[in-house]
DNA sequence: ATTGTGCGTCTTGCATGCATGAAGAGGACT
DNA sequence: AGTCCTCTTCATGCATGCAAGACGCACAAT
């Protein structure tokens, strides 16, 4: 069954992964030849992969000037968070109505695991389980398009979220908010589930200023509006 | 200033336009060579354009089997409408808080024009102005990412919306709903604006059954899950 | 010292060539 | 007759080649 995957798709996934995982930092130049050599192919599939990533907003291709990992400034990140909040909110709303008993059990299990890891204290380990928690809810929406869309926005934001949980008390707060969401979901209350999830994702009140001040951690070369992107945070040549 | 546009970008825009405008119907085969000839280029930029469109969900590329315009089945269309509703809802919410006086004036002008055209009676003419109405609200959100995202989903749905307004009384209803939204926007009531917009976009109650029964108008070759897509609505070879 | 000009180098954008794998036609066999 | 198999044909996936545009540097002029 395993449908054959073309090189360009493999490359696109690999590069997207590099970006999401923070191995390719915003502003980093993606040289076609270098990538081609790195992956042992010609430039053609590399170019196709870059085009795909560009179409999804992960990289920016300036004609005749090559591709760089998109660097979002504070404003753009906040914009994406606004989107993320409603998408995840919709996931929760739909999940409240549509999750099967098996999915509900799954949710509870993952949530319990989250609680356990939160108590354990390592934010990075918690982060992984936190991701799974949200994934369960995406799936629970029974809306594939929404699932993909939400995941895509999440991935675009991921370089900027890594450190979010390292703030003091953030993990505990996160898991508490999860708890509220889970309750609403299991009670089948779509309105409350949506509203709670939106609050959970949205950066509000203190969270906002905390986030903004901690942001620009991944050397965010602001690039699109000002035609600089190479003046201050000089596009590091990728290995 | 006019930044140079590469062939592949031109092609991508042209093809997306063909799809949105219904000139390229769902299920239609997009032959690389034919397109290359049609646009007077080699296959390379055509391939890159197709990859971009694939990354955005407009076409589907099955390895070694070429690209086809994505055909959405009823379920997928409804899924996208669910997304669309919250995205447009968010636009309205943000617009209610953020629109400048000039933008508000713009909104009123376009709305008035909508009312005029609705009374005039031609659904297709109204459709164009209706699009502008929504665009004004996208812009009013002052959230570029949201604007693009919403427009993208809208475009994906456009082949399936064309006939929606041809239903008896739909135009009148649409313009009435606009009126409610406008009122909430101008009063600066984000909650109401969002909620009204969600209802406006969402297909609910009668709207749903009406829509579903009228759907599958563009010969929607359901393709992704079942590996057929070529059995019933045989991929028409594009000119 | 700073700014403007010209050249050289390099990367990108696109064209072309070739091999692999898929769809279809035709025939043999059940 | 229907089914399976083989062979042919052809489109796709990828590699390579080539020209144009961008960047950097040196040098000259102010």
Automatic annotation (TrEMBL), chains A, B:
One example GO MF annotation: DNA binding
Keyword Transcription: yes
InterPro entries assigned: GntR_C, TF_FadR/GntR_C, Tscrpt_reg_HTH_GntR, WH-like_DNA-bd_sf, WH_DNA-bd_sf
Keywords for this protein: DNA-binding, Transcription, Transcription regulation
Pfam families attached to this UniProt entry: FCD (PF07729), GntR (PF00392)
Region (Disordered): 215-239
Occurrences of domain HTH gntR-type (ranges): 5-72
SUPFAM superfamilies linked: GntR ligand-binding domain-like (SSF48008), Winged helix' DNA-binding domain (SSF46785)
Stored PANTHER family: TRANSCRIPTIONAL REGULATOR, GNTR FAMILY (PTHR43537), TRANSCRIPTIONAL REGULATORY PROTEIN (PTHR43537:SF49)
Descriptive protein name: GntR family transcriptional regulator
Organism: Nitrospirillum viridazoti CBAmc
Lineage start: Bacteria, Pseudomonadati, Pseudomonadota, Alphaproteobacteria, Rhodospirillales
């Amino acid at each position: 069954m395993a449908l054959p995957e073309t090189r360009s798709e493999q490359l696109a996934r690999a590069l997207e992964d590099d970006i999401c995982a923070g191995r390719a930092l915003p502003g980093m130049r993606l040289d076609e030849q270098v990538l081609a050599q790195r992956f042992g192919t010609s430039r053609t599939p590399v170019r196709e992969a870059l085009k795909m990533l560009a179409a999804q907003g992960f990289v920016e291709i300036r004609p005749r000037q090559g591709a760089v990992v998109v660097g979002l400034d504070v404003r753009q990140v906040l914009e994406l968070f606004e989107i993320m909040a409603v998408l995840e909110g919709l996931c929760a709303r739909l999940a409240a109505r549509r999750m099967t008993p098996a999915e509900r059990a799954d949710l509870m299990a993952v949530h319990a695991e989250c609680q356990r890891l939160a108590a354990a204290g390592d934010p990075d380990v918690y982060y992984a389980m936190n991701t799974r928690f949200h994934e369960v809810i995406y799936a629970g929406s029974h809306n594939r398009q929404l699932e993909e869309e939400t995941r895509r926005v999440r991935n675009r934001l991921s370089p900027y979220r890594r450190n979010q949980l390292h703030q003091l008390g953030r993990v505990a707060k996160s898991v508490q908010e999860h708890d509220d969401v889970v309750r609403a979901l299991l009670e089948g209350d779509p309105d409350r589930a949506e509203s709670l999830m939106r609050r959970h994702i949205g950066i509000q009140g203190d969270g906002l200023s905390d986030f903004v001040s901690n942001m620009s951690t991944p050397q965010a070369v602001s690039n699109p509006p000002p035609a600089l992107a190479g003046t201050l945070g000089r596009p590091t040549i990728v290995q």
